[in-house]
Amino acid sequence: SQKIEQNSEALNIQEGKTATLTCNYTNYSPAYLQWYRQDPGRGPVFLLLIRENEKEKRKERLKVTFDTTLKQSLFHITASQPADSATYLCAVSGSARQLTFGSGTQLTVLP
Amino acid sequence: DSGVTQTPKHLITATGQRVTLRCSPRSGDLSVYWYQQSLDQGLQFLIQYYNGEERAKGNILERFSAQQFPDLHSELNLSSLELGDSALYFCASVAPYGYGYTFGSGTRLTVV
Fold first, then answer.
1. What's the pLDDT tens digit per position in A36-54?
2. Which end of chain A is more exposed for a tag (fewer CB within 10 A), N or C?
């Protein structure tokens, strides 16, 4: 069955450093991979989408890479700030656009 | 405010009861997706509607049902509630030619 793994349930980093989160998937060939941010008790917020034919996408301090050979996506936050502390979710979909989510990585940026 | 409205925000009910959760999608969005989020399961896809028609089903129990009305709001009905149904229930909508989901703030259901 399809499986999405986000290693590191929790990640602590120092303010100003680059946070790197990993998403691996198995038994799936997604057409799209998305990253969301979720704060406690709130709904996830869409951050970035990358297509299967794209290697990298950037948005301000965020960068996503997509390696379909390794079946892996990396999500980077550069110059991290305490306000970036949240749970980050990886999600994959095919052409049907229905998303399957990973369990998330809880990021804490320490001042 | 994301533009997706969910009511109620909190719901406490007893086992065996039935509840209805409501969702209004963002203006212009035709798709509504329902997700359940519990501590041990993460976000689980339940069901999708598009312009009033059911499009996809996920891990939705037979005790649960949903519909989307002509004005595009959707309702998720949960019946014969069990303690394990306690969770956050989110709905999300997507623009007709977009991909990123816009989630509502969720309904926290507690079954006692």
1. 999 998 999 999 999 989 9
2. N
Tell me: the pLDDT tens digits for B42-61?
Answer: 899 999 999 999 999 998 99
CB contact (8 A) between residue B99 and residue A98: no
User: What does B35-95 look like in DSSP terms, one character per residue?
Assistant: EEEETTTEEEEEEEEETTEEEEE-S--TTEEEEE-TTS-EEEEE-S--GGG-EEEEEEEE-
Give A26 to chain B, closest Cα distance, Å.
17
Q: Pick the residue with more confidence: A57 or A1?
A: A57
- Which residue among A43, A93, A99 sits closest to B2, beta carbon to beta carbon? A43
